[in-house]
Structures are given as structure tokens and as C-alpha cells.
Design a protein that fits this description.
Structural class: alpha/beta
Distance between the termini: 38 Å
Number of strands: 11
CATH superfamily of the largest domain: NAD(P)-binding Rossmann-like Domain
Radius of gyration: 23 Å
Strand content: 5-15%
Number of helices: 14
CATH architecture of the largest domain: 3-Layer(aba) Sandwich
Strand order of the largest sheet: 7-6-8-9-10-11
């Protein structure tokens, strides 16, 4: 279906016949499962909405669409080759590893993401994972609800180890918006914060260090870098050997940054004392995933970005991005950023 509003779409050939704009949302359920207002849908109410789209159906569902919005559905080269009308991709998120950017550039498709919309929410969730490890609230709650707390000196209570974070060192691998937000939270708890990023600006508010020092000195190592060819699988057996023995590993970035089996082996050996992860190499992740089933790993189903307020911000900025594109002044254009 095509909406009756006709828009002059950037990228169409001058003098070509203007047609109503066709917009497809490939996988909108996670972003807007509670049906919050979205300005794109209000302006173009006949857009085509799919709650979920398997990767192998992306090209078919996009078809002759001019603009597409995606959260986790992959849009690869074959999609661009099969969908010649495509001129815009709005990413429902900050990471854009779901898009073949080289193919997008070759086909003249603008790709816009939403930087830092979830920094505070992800930092909050990372802290929740850390506190789940150090304060063991879930275990204590379950113990009490089972009626087991019956003695002042209950050995079942004292057997559960806890950790005070003040004075400990947290290393942040990927000191961008989320890493900075998490570092601020850790500083408020009295922790020493070290950061690592490939290209420090010199304006960071915590000491930047090399990767070996970060691994060696961190009691808690928190992953906040993007998934790239360089970072894919980087937290592997060799990497973990450099980590301070007994460290806690956190990952709320992208699951494929970790080699899950190697992390599980590090937990088994004691090289890592615990882990907390919200993201997985293959999602949804089940018991076949070595971290999901590991007793020393706290896991959540990629929900750190999920608060209603956070998603409302995401929806607003995706609409702003799209309308800026239609006005001929794209913002948050990933390709422009990569070319600088």
C-alpha cells in the first residue's frame, strides 16, 4: 500500500514521476510493543509494519519500498541489489552492524542511526548486572521467600559471598557515551575508573590506558565498544589470560564481542569470578549458549535499552532523522560519519 501523500524523495532522479512514499518497518515489536506514538506512523499511517522479519525475508518484504526501518533484521548486499527503490534506512538503535554499509554506499542509500539515546539506561542496567553479582539480591530474596531464614547466625546466609565495590577498579573497554555514563555511576560508588578507546580525544574525564593495563588492573571489566571486524570475538582465551585473576566481566554492548565458550572456561578456571551479560552472539539465546547455562553468569535477554522512556526517545529521534532526510538535510548519517 502507498500513502496518498506525495513526497519529493532525496535520491530520485530529477524530473522523474513523483509517487507516494512507501515505508516498511521490518521489526518494530521490540521497539514499540506498547504502541507509543510515533511521528512517522502519524504522518504516514499506511506504512507497512512487521513485528518481526527473518533475515531471509528482508528483501521480499522491502520490495519496492523507498524507506525502511530496522532494529535487528540484517540488511545485506543481496537486499540492496533486490530493492532498487530503497533510498533510506532508519536504524532503531545506536549500533548499525545489521547493515552492509559498503553496499548501502554503493547503492546510494542513506543510513541513519540514533547515537546515545540509551546511554543512561544501559549504564543503569550494567550496574544492575554488577550489583547482582556483588550483592546477590536475587539469591537472598529467594532464600527468604522459601522460609529458610530462621536463625540470626544462619549459615545459609553467611555462605553467600558479597563484595564492596568502593576502592575497586573498573575498566571500561569502549569509553563512548555509554561507557562514560557507566564510569560516572561507578565513581559515585567510590570506584577507580580506567578507560580504553582506540582514538582518545584528550578530553576524557577518567584516565585512558592501554588494553594490557586495563585488563591487568581491573577488578571489573565492562565492555561498551561497538561490534566491528576488529572487535568481533576479541574477548577470547588469549585476551582473558591477560585479565586480572578473579575479575568480573560485564557485557552490555554486543554479544559477538565475546567468545562465549572461552568466557565459560575462564569462569570454570577461576580466571573470572563472575560475569553479567545482556547480549549474545545468537539471539534469542537458549540453554545451548555456554553463558546462559553457566551458574556464575548473570544473564538478561538484551533488555538494557528497554525502558519505556528510553524507547520513546528512540522513536522520537528516528522520526526526526527521517524528516530531516526528507527535507534534504540528513542527520546522524552513518555513512557521513564513517567517511570523516
Amino acid at each position: 500500500m502507498r500513502h496518498s501523500i506525495t513526497v519529493s524523495l532525496p535520491g530520485r532522479k530529477p524530473g522523474s514521476k513523483e509517487e507516494p512514499l512507501k515505508i516498511v518497518v521490518l521489526d518494530g515489536y521490540l521497539v514499540n510493543h506498547d504502541r507509543q506514538p510515533w511521528a512517522v506512523a502519524e504522518r504516514f499511517p499506511e506504512l507497512i509494519w512487521y513485528d518481526e522479519t527473518p533475515d531471509d525475508l528482508a528483501a521480499e518484504r522491502i520490495g519496492d519500498a523507498d524507506a525502511v526501518f530496522a532494529n535487528r533484521t540484517h540488511i545485506g548486499r543481496q537486499v540492496f541489489e533486490s530493492c532498487p527503490n530503497l533510498r533510506y534506512i532508519g536504524v532503531f538503535g545506536t549500533g548499525y552492524n545489521i547493515i552492509d554499509l559498503k553496499a548501502a554506499k554503493e547503492h546510494g542509500v542513506t543510513v541513519c542511526n540514533v547515537p546515545e539515546y540509551s546511554s543512561q539506561a544501559v549504564a543503569q542496567h550494567t550496574l544492575a548486572l554488577l550489583l547482582a553479582v556483588t550483592n546477590r539480591v536475587a539469591e537472598f530474596s529467594a532464600y527468604m521467600k522459601a522460609g529458610k531464614w530462621q536463625l540470626p547466625g544462619d549459615p545459609g546466609v553467611t555462605a553467600v559471598p558479597m563484595m564492596e565495590l568502593a576502592g575497586k577498579t573498573v575498566g571500561i573497554l569502549g569509553y563512548g557515551g555509554i561507557g562514560k555514563a557507566f564510569g560516572s555511576v561507578c565513581q559515585a560508588l567510590g570506584m577507580r575508573v580506567l578507560g580504553f578507546r582506540r582514538h582518545p580525544s584528550g578530553t576524557e574525564v577518567v584516565p585512558m590506558t592501554d588494553l594490557d593495563t586495563l585488563c591487568r588492573e581491573s577488578d571489573v571489566l565492562s565492555i561498551h565498544c561497538p561490534l566491528t571486524d576488529e572487535t568481533r570475538g576479541m574477548v577470547n582465551r588469549d585476551f582473558l589470560r591477560r585479565v586480572k585473576p578473579g575479575a568480573i566481566l560485564l557485557n552490555t554492548a554486543r554479544g559477538a564481542i565475546l567468545n562465549g565458550q572461552d568466557v565459560a572456561e575462564a569462569l570454570d578456571s577461576g580466571q573470572l569470578s563472575a560475569a553479567g551479560v545482556d547480549v549474545f552472539a545468537h539471539e534469542p539465546a537458549g540453554l545451548e549458549d555456554p553463558l546462559v547455562r553457566h551458574p556464575q553468569c548473570i544473564v538478561t535477554p538484551h533488555v538494557s535499552w528497554g525502558p519505556r522512556e528510553t524507547r520513546a526517545r528512540l522513536l522520537q529521534i528516528t522520526a526526526d532523522n527521517f524528516f530531516a532526510f526528507l527535507d534534504g538535510h540528513p542527520q546522524n548519517n552513518v555513512l557521513d560519519h564513517l567517511e570523516k
